[in-house]
Amino acid sequence: MLRAKRQLSHGSVGAVGPPLQRQRSSITRASIGPQGEHDSQNDGRRIQDYRRAHQPAVYNQQFSHAPIINGDIYGGVHNNIQDSTLDSLQFLYQHAAMGAMHESEERCPPPLCHPGTRDVVLGRVIGWYLDKDGQKKIMWVHAPLGYGKTAVAGTVKERLDAMELGFDNPVGATFFFWRNSAERNSPARFIITLAYQLAQSIPGLCRHIDSVIKSKPGIVKMALENQLIELIVKPFESLPNVDIMPSRLVIVDGIDECINSDRESLVEKKYAEDQEVVQIRVLDLIHSLHSHHLPLSFLILSRPEAWIKRHLESTPFNDVVEPLDLYKVEDHMNDVKRFVRAELSRIAKRFEEPDEEWPEEQGLLRHSEGHMVYAATVIRHIDDEYGDPRQLLKEITKYSHTNRPDISHSTPFSSLYELYRQIMRSCPQRNQSLMMEVLGEVIESENLFFEHYTHNIALRVLDRLSRRPPGCGVKALRPLHAVLRVGKGKEDSRIDDLFIHSSFREFLQSPHLSFEFAVDADKETARLLSAMLDRMTSTTTDTIGSELEDVCLFALHNWCHSWARGRRTFLKSKKNLSPPDKKDSLFHPSRISKFFVKSIETDTLSIAHKVASHAQSSLDSAFTFMLQAAMPLILSEDAMVLVSYDSAQYLHQVISEPDWREHKVVRALGTPGPWGIDLWTSIIDELYESEALHDLLKHIYKVMVRDKNPILEQEDNPFDDIDCIDELELESDYESAPESLTSSIDSDDE
């Protein structure tokens, strides 16, 4: 048994058995105070620093300049104030969901109603808002999928802005929820975003909000209900003459798109019951604002989901909500007729044809059943510069009634889903298999990280990952220009924003609607994960110092997340291990090797074994390369601590193997290279922290003594703390031990 003057602090990780007394602090872990003294806090702080280092602080969100700040706090954002002089608007801007606003770049151009359509509902909404004597200050406009609710919201905003009402900014704030956006599929930034816009719409609010921010700089860590009081209610109540202030309209669209209560969006989507909870919470926040009798009116737009309808019809809401059924109040057939006539006239003019009614025009109106999304999709499908619009329209209307699904698959949108099937079937048969593969990648892209999200560039990376000829992905999607943002003039469309309407995405993921065109998300995740692992195996230590290919970088960025999703879905089995503790992140580096090896022991699928093999070999190669580095390792002090800690955790598993002494990482620890000594020293310090690793520590020492390693002659070598070694297994192993160590052993024996 090896005994040394080392002791593990009570807060350290990995302690097994009685602690060993430490005589000195490792250089890599010592911190220097203001006067130059070493910080004497216990090693528990080191582990805490380690964990903090693995909690990402800020990452920029797609489409927006606003960062999302990741942490275990209410609302999913961290306080990022550096001092109390930070301007309040800038503070709010840093934490607002900029993409959720009507004028945002993310929504440009914003959906608007076609001229001359939706006039009835627009008139009802604007009239309700302008009615000063109205008692109900919340209006709920609801309609099923595809009836243009978001376009109505945007058109209301622009029409009110254009009116001369005697005061500026009649629309005080907007928030457009959207399930595919990290900023917009959660209520995390809802209150801050409203406060940011109201502060600009009503300038008097700024100084009062500024006072709140300076007095309570942790406001962004508070619950949304507290943010509402501090950032909106109290500033309003501080204004003079608030009772006679003109009411501002707050537009909240797509509450049914608010599906994520977590701080991160790239996580597995919540189950329906969790979505209900978070959506009802948003409604309650709106009701709370209304209950304070502020000069605010609220326009809510959503699908008539059962829980939303039930909540808005309950006692607290019933007396203050004005419901408006978009489906019932509007002349949808007339709106569609006006839209179709205008669009067919435009297409005819482009082809220099007479502006007259097309033979199939009435058939299109009939098949649309008043759905604007149906008519708009048909128009995009036939508006093809390489095709004959009249022939394309004839084919669509001809087959729409002959290929309708049977009654068992009938839905209120059967005509729309049949249209989608017709569009898919119209694609060349020889390319349909490839088209479905790429569509699966587009759906999966919501969970992937790309260096460049422009779909042309992203699909080139996916082409290389899937070993397709360059450009195949883009070409495969071109026939789907009616339902995807692809083709001429749309080269800059993002891969995670290709679906023109969410109904097409839902169609693809619903086998009872899409039939042979269903996308199996689990199968696609497995295919991409397998391809990522194949690509990563081509990246070895021989490539160090050279620039990695974009496809390899893509695989390195995404494989771990894909594995985690797969473990919850297609890799899940009855024998699977229970999920990790909530407080212990799935991707925490200190758990990574244990997670892979243990979880895979219970799975027999080839993809699981591929992950196991890759994880094992990659860890072995990475630690060995760094320990025997032939070139300088550019590792910060923090990085050195993290790597050495991970290495020690990994070695706990290594020594459980019967032939652990022959393991490549163990051999590398006995023969560190000239540029790996600092890391080696840090790892040796970590080995002292757990008695379970003392046999390994003893073995490393014996190997280095046998090989007469010059490291042992150095004054600061980590073995210099050894007091004594009890009964040596092979005394010959120590016959060449440095004099300082042998004398220490002799004196102890005396």
Automatic annotation (TrEMBL):
Region (Disordered): 1-44
Tagged with keyword Repeat: yes
Pfam family of the protein (one): NPHP3_N
Protein name stated in the entry: Nephrocystin 3-like N-terminal domain-containing protein
Keywords from the UniProt entry: Repeat
InterPro entries assigned: NPHP3-like_N, P-loop_NTPase
Record domain Nephrocystin 3-like N-terminal: where: 130-303
Gene3D superfamilies noted in UniProt: P-loop containing nucleotide triphosphate hydrolases (3.40.50.300)
